[in-house]
Amino acid sequence: MTGPFAHGEDAFLERLRRRFAVPAAPRGGLGIGDDAAVLPGRPRRVVTTDLLVEGQHFRFDLLAPADLAVRALEANLSDIAAMGAQPEAVFLGLAWPRGAAASRRLEPFLAALARACRARRVPLLGGDTVRAPQGATTLALAVTGLPHRGGPVLRSGGRPGDALVVTGALGGSALGLALLEGRVRVSREAGARRLAERAAARYRRPRARLAAAPALAARASALIDLSDGLGLDLPRLARASGCGFEVRADLLPVDPAAARLLPPDEALRLALRGGEDYELLAAVAPGRLAGLLRRLAAVGVPAAAIGRLLPARAGGRLRTGGTVRRWVAAGWDPLRTGRSRGLDAAASRSVLPAGRRRPAAG
Fold this sequence. Notes:
The protein is built from ten helices and 14 strands. It has helices at residues 8-19, 65-81, 100-120, 172-180, 190-204, 213-219, 230-241, 256-261, 264-273, 286-298; strands at residues 37-39, 45-53, 85-97, 124-132, 138-147, 163-167, 184-186, 222-226, 243-248, 279-284, 303-311, 316-320, 323-326, 349-351.
């Protein structure tokens, strides 16, 4: 692959950051390079936007229009939460194709988006619409937010020795996508079916960790959302903070469905590389760790310490038992190879409820 996108999203964003660098950023402001921009003022605001293109980010044979509406909103809200902020307003840019099939999808999409905005108490205040030629549905949501006390929290505030804390569980959304695409099949056992349904629901309708944002704003030194997978997003946080890092595989909160339905090595790969879990990853000073975990538990947000930041010279590493391996930066990159799911996309797998392969006949 050649051209301006050959080196992936991070390299392209760095190119944009240099080209559009502000010579003297307004006091309290922040441009390209974090989960959201920060606008100076009283109060300061955070602003994020996300572009979704049919065929690249979603497929209507896997998602209903209502699912797309929820996913689009929650992806943006996750960026707001990752700044230690609360959402303020939503703006929608919509290019909806011509044709009968596309027209039938529009009303369910808009109705679901309205319900989702009401449920999250964030109004849709404007945007732009166009009737596109027959082809890919495209939408862009922008969300503004107001930092909680202590926020906004940037990716760049981590220090060597900080604990790495992740909310929720990882790998469930990627498993859900693999199930919907038929790359993983489960047995007919009721428990396995329920786990598969939960994984599919995590993919179709993620939920941003807005409830965690106040505690993280008060106690985290650095913060990022896990939309592209821990494999890519953790190095981004560490690089912005000028640090290396180490993660312990035995501490990773692997999604229960992935842990039950897949062999351990494949469940671990999904937890590391799957993406679209929309959990939050924080760097936290050791003295603040216990208080943060208590506050998150009090608002119903599960969280686990999975490792620590190190001096930059240490690089990134994964500790598995007594083995330490170099960190592999893999996950979702829309400008290069697309999703690295950790499962062979060409192979269909059949698994038993306990994660064992189905034995061959005879």
